[in-house]
C-alpha cells in the first residue's frame, strides 16, 4: 500500500516531467528555447494539458515502487552482511542501482508510450491503450522493438 501511495504521490509532479519531455523532443527544438516558453505553450490549453500522460506515469511509478519495495529485501539478503556504515552504503548503492536499472528496463515500453503522449500539445487526448497499439503496429508487432533504445536507459 505504501508503494502505491508513493507512486501516486510522485505523479503530482507530472507537469515537470511533461515540460522536460517537450524540451527533449526534437520536433519542439526550434519552438522552445527554455522551460518558461514550454510552460507558456501549455498554459493556453488549461491545467489538464500539464497532466497529459498521467496514466502511463501512474502505471510506471506505482508498479516500479511495488517492485522496488518487494525486491529490496531479497536482493539485500544476497549481498554480504554490512558490518560498518560504509559497507552498508555500498550495499544500498548496489541494491538501488540494480533495482533502478531493472525497473528502467522493465518499464521502458511504458516510457515510450508516455513520451509519445506527452509530445503532443493540444488536440485530442489519446488513451494509453490506443497509443500503445499505434506504437506496437509501428514497431512491427515485436516485443523486442518496444525496447529499442532501452540499453541507453539502463546504462
UniProtKB/TrEMBL annotation:
Pfam families: Mito_carr. It is found in: Mitochondrion inner membrane. The keyword Transmembrane helix applies. Its main location: mitochondrion. It is a multi-pass membrane protein. InterPro entries: MCP_dom_sf (IPR023395), MCP_transmembrane (IPR018108), Mito_NAD+_Carrier (IPR052465). Keywords: Membrane, Mitochondrion, Mitochondrion inner membrane, Repeat, Transmembrane, Transmembrane helix, Transport. Solcar repeats lie at residues 1-78. The chain crosses the membrane at residues 89-108. Belongs to the mitochondrial carrier (TC 2.A.29) family. This is Uncharacterized protein.
Amino acid at each position: 500500500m505504501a508503494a502505491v501511495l508513493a507512486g501516486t504521490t510522485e505523479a503530482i509532479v507530472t507537469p515537470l516531467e511533461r515540460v522536460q519531455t517537450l524540451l527533449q523532443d526534437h520536433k519542439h527544438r526550434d519552438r522552445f528555447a527554455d522551460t518558461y516558453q514550454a510552460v507558456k505553450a501549455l498554459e493556453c490549453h488549461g491545467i489538464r494539458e500539464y497532466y497529459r500522460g498521467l496514466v502511463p506515469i501512474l502505471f510506471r511509478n506505482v508498479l516500479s515502487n511495488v517492485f522496488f519495495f518487494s525486491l529490496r529485501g531479497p536482493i539485500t539478503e544476497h549481498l554480504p552482511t554490512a558490518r560498518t556504515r560504509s559497507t552498508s552504503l555500498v550495499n544500498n548503492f548496489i541494491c538501488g542501482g540494480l533495482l533502478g536499472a531493472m525497473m528502467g528496463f522493465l518499464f521502458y515500453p511504458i516510457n515510450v508510450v508516455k513520451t509519445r503522449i506527452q509530445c503532443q500539445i493540444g488536440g485530442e487526448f489519446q488513451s494509453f491503450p490506443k497509443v500503445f497499439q499505434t506504437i506496437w503496429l509501428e514497431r512491427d508487432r515485436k516485443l523486442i522493438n518496444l525496447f529499442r533504445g532501452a540499453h541507453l536507459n539502463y546504462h
